[in-house]
Amino acid sequence: MKVLVINCGSSSLKYQLFEMDNESVLAKGLVERIGIAGSRIKHTKTGMDPVVKETDIPDHNVAFKEVTTMLLDDRYGVIKSLGELAAVGHRVVHAGEKYAGSVLVTKDVIDALTECIPLAPLHNPANLMGINAVTEALPDIPQVGVFDTAFHQTMPSHAYIYGIPYEYYEKYKIRRYGFHGTSHLYVSNRAAEMLGKPIESLKIITCHMGNGSSITAVQGGKSVDTTLGFGTTPGVIMGTRSGDLDPVIIPYLMQQEGFDTKSISDLLNKKSGLLGISGVSSDLRDVEEASEKGNSRAQLAESILYYGVKKYIGAYAAAMGGVDAIVFTAGIGENCPKGRETICSGLEFMGVKLDREKNATRGKDRFINADDSAVKVLVIPTDEELVIARDTKRITLEG
Ligand code: AMP
Asked: Which atom of ligand 1 lies at the shortest distance from residue 288's CA?
């Protein structure tokens, strides 16, 4: 059974084609700069070098046509006809409180995604464009939506209700939703597998640290708290997002600088975090390089990130009454030994002991704790596409 997984951004479309009989990736690629000059598709058939085609791609419908053309190509393709595709799975960001799991895309789902546009103004419209593009090209193919927010729907109300008048939860559904759900789900289950224990018996803290970051407390396989919230700005600092902030700063800055709502939102989401503090870059590799050369603001940005993660590990261990395993994933979590070491140092009091040699690893499933560490520490490369493909297969077969 072949399943195509799609992840649409406002000007991009990422895809992976899976053979689900053995969960292998047949081909993958990225369409970039949709609707912008210089649009192109980069396609890789597994086992071959990537091919790049530069062509005018004005919208997501044309982008999806380019994807199908590549998949059918004599040389770079992996299927003979589109009829070989059994289903399409979409990464979709925000479903509000409506769905606690993945669903077959129906008119109701499209309505729910449309209703949630104000909650995810950057992501939901792009996800809808992806669904429309597939519907136009393949009207009869089953499509499944896998929501970033769904895994966190198990949080108890004391973790998701904010300390503002309750009427705004009732009126506008203002609450913590959480994101990166497929990643937290994947790595927590993989950790249980690696530990050889049922996930129901485990307390795991998953640290998804990439350009966007979130830390999640996973108790018995369920998300019980997470750092991202109503939107994707809070928690630890990110590439360009501020992380936690005293809300009073917002009206104060608006008053002092004459910012309108768009300017303040841009400041918090696009100019803050690693970039805003270091003044160097949103990319941790650049920040690390500057910091090694003695740039004190780059050093400060790194410290703030690692301190934030450490603080949430402590908080979530308290929330769950202990922790069995800490997992690091995503670009920074998988590839940055220095970050993992800084975060874990000082946590010996709660049974966390890293093995420096094992920690000197990048990008593969591995235990990095010392043999006598009570808490296991793991690096697990995330695989959101595989979770989406598995859910798509399951839901399509269930009908
Ligand atoms: P992601 O959003 O998961 O793709 O993660 C992107 C982040 O991972 C960026 O901040 C990168 O700088 C960071 N990253 C990727 N590779 C490394 C590395 N080798 N060392 C440190 N950070 C890295």
From this structure: 21
Q: Is the CB of 291 under 6 A from ligand 1?
A: no
pLDDT band at residue 122 under the 50/70/90 scheme: confident
Contact of 317 with 206, CB cutoff 8 Å? no
DSSP state of 193: H
> Burial level of 105, CB count in 10 A (0-12/13-18/19+)?
buried
DSSP code, position 149: T
Asked if 43 contacts 70 with a C-beta cutoff of 8 angstroms, the reply is: yes
Ligand 1 touching residue 330 (CB < 6 A): yes
Q: In a 3-state reduction of DSSP, which class is residue 275?
A: helix
239 close to ligand 1 (CB < 6 Angstrom): yes
Q: What is the C-alpha to C-alpha distance for residues 102 and 123, in angstroms, rounded to an integer?
A: 17
Backbone angles phi, psi at 118, to 5 degrees: -60, -25
Residue of 21, 108, 111, 148 marked catalytic: 148
Per-residue pLDDT tens over the stretch 53-104: 999 999 999 999 999 999 999 999 999 999 999 999 999 988 888 888 899 9
Among this protein's residues, is 148 annotated catalytic?
yes
Q: Look at strands 325-329 and 376-379 and give their pairing.
A: parallel
What domains can be seen in the chain, in order of their start residue?
2-147 (3.30.420.40), 197-379 (3.30.420.40)
Beta strands 12-19; 24-32: pairing state: antiparallel
Written as six digits, the tokens of 215 are 């830390």
Q: Cα(184)–Cα(55) distance, rounded to whole angstroms?
A: 36
Residues 6+ apart with CB under 8 A from 188: 199, 202, 204, 206, 216, 218, 221, 327
162, with CB counted inside 10 A (0-12, 13-18, 19+), is middle
CA distance 176 to 100: 14
Q: Quote the CA–CA distance of 252 and 250 in Å, as a whole number.
A: 5
Place of tokens 């690096």: 379
- Whether residue 38 contacts residue 111, with contact meaning beta carbons closer than 8 Å, is answered with no
Residue 342 C-alpha to ligand 1 middle, in angstroms?
16
How is the beta sheet containing 143-147 ordered, strand by strand? Answer: 51-54, 40-45, 24-32, 12-19, 2-9, 85-92, 143-147, 103-104
- Confidence at residue 362, expressed as pLDDT on a 0 to 100 scale: 79
